[in-house]
């Protein structure tokens, strides 16, 4: 624009004032039109990336992202799931956020998942005299006991008798996210004596980690129970349990949900359960890890506390092992913590952070999460956008697609009609180069089976259940569409042309069928609405089930029509 104005000034020296002004106006109009066109093309490109990516993005909400405008901006930038961190904030604030999210959802006609993340049993020391921090020297002894007297440089209260009763000679205590490290050298009924291996400052209510023992405590604190009971009334889609140590923790969570799910509102369904893996006890034994994954609807690799309780060099390996187990079972997996940490204060990430996101994708994660970057950082939109850009770039890499194909070829199907149809649909998508895979589903079971095999096209989950559509927003490659089924369709147990036309219309509105000859592969379980069933496959062009373009027939066929379609 500046160069054009300079040029207009040069020309203007040879023109009358009126002509000079007219030329400047014309140039400005052309520049603005070009800029608008470029901006429009950029927006179109970003929206296409937004709705064609397979890996999902979880954005934590907080002070930096609590307005209606910011929520919508984050959603359009790439956020598929919004995380409510119950470690902070009041219940009424969470209710307001849910209402705002549902308004964005309604405005754009796209389901959005809400994840309630419970704080879990966060263990802390007591307080020190005069609220002062004290310095512990390497090699000194330091005692933890049940005495409420303010502490000093020789002792402090540890108001958790279950920890004191469990710790024994040689066990490790980590203080303040691992900044101080101590080893138990003696213990009694109401105390443990430790030897300070790594010294430093300790102050009021610093966190305590016990990586060497499984604590005999409930995974749900009184605060967690109150938070979860409240969250259930909001109709949240996922609930994440922190500091899971054993399969029984998930069973306890499931029992609590079953007992406290509101019964006065039929629109509220039980949320999906997610285990946050951040304790060595949950991941060191492959059998325990496998059982936890079996019991959960989703897994989060919570690398923050996991990196505190285990050696840093072990965390990348554990991440791969956890993701691999989830891929094997077809359980959605989210990798979290410090993915774009530098973008809390910077508009651009480090190259290592981009590589970290990419590694999670190559490992096979369903989603990646932002914490403080979107909740309290200065650049929440830029953080979500950057994460989406990395996702788009990795998913366009032939090596990424090759790995998904290898996983599909190595898959061992269950001996069920559902798995047979799902695998066949995946193969058909490849063969005919379909633009989308559309699946009728009641609870999402069939969609999860399809997502496990990582088709090269978006999966459109067609469901009469809004909670199902929302929960599936966390799953790799899946975009939900609420489609009520009328009684005639369910009663006749037929995938009629009207129903198929509704499917192609939905795929068009979602932007997956654009050209007349674009194909959709459709699977369903008849009668429609049967949970977990899949026994029908259809291939339908964008023109609709009653049309079958000549270009899609065998070359030697002179004419063809719907009867030649599959």
Give the key terms.
single chain, 566 residues, alpha/beta, 8-stranded parallel barrel
Q: Summed up, what is this model?
A:
The chain is α/β, with parallel strands linked by helices and 566 residues long.
What does this structure look like?
The chain is an alpha/beta fold and 566 residues long. The protein has 20 helices and 21 strands. α12 (351-363) packs across α14 (380-395).
Number of strands: 21
End-to-end separation = 56 Å
Low-confidence stretches: 1-13
Can you count the helices?
Answer: 20
Order of strands across the biggest sheet? 1-2-3-12-13-14-15-16
Largest sheet: 8 strands, parallel, barrel
Radius of gyration: 28 Å
Mean pLDDT: 89
Shape: elongated
**Which structural class matches the secondary elements?**
alpha/beta
Fraction in beta strands: 15-25%
Share in helix: 40-55%
Record the SSE blueprint.
Blueprint: H1 2-12, H2 17-52, E1 56-60, H3 68-77, E2 81-85, H4 91-108, E3 113-117, E4 134-136, E5 141-145, E6 155-157, H5 161-166, E7 172-175, E8 180-187, E9 191-198, E10 200-202, E11 208-209, H6 222-233, E12 238-241, H7 247-260, E13 272-277, H8 280-283, H9 286-295, E14 298-302, H10 303-309, H11 315-329, E15 333-336, H12 351-363, E16 367-370, H13 372-375, H14 380-395, H15 398-410, H16 417-432, E17 436-440, H17 445-452, E18 459-463, H18 466-471, E19 478-482, H19 487-492, H20 497-509, E20 519-524, E21 536-541
Parallel strand pairs: 1-2, 1-16, 2-3, 3-12, 5-6, 12-13, 13-14, 14-15, 15-16, 17-18, 17-20, 18-19
Antiparallel strand pairs: 4-10, 5-9, 7-8, 7-11, 8-9, 20-21
